[in-house]
């Protein structure tokens, strides 16, 4: 199981290698900060692990309600 921080670091490393072509266009500090922001957004959107995900409660279906008897017409 990976912690949220470890997942964020892995995402940042992958983004750095994937976006290496854009690195010369800006300073090192700006590049790192933008990678950090992007990795936070991706890690928040990533599916939760089994330990952090809350189990869903089973919803019971209600039995259909009985209708009132219709009055007899003379």
From TrEMBL:
Region annotated Disordered, chain positions: 41-74
Protein name, entry field: Uncharacterized protein
Annotated Basic residues bias: 54-66
Organism this protein belongs to: Dinghuibacter silviterrae
Lineage: Bacteria, Pseudomonadati, Bacteroidota, Chitinophagia, Chitinophagales
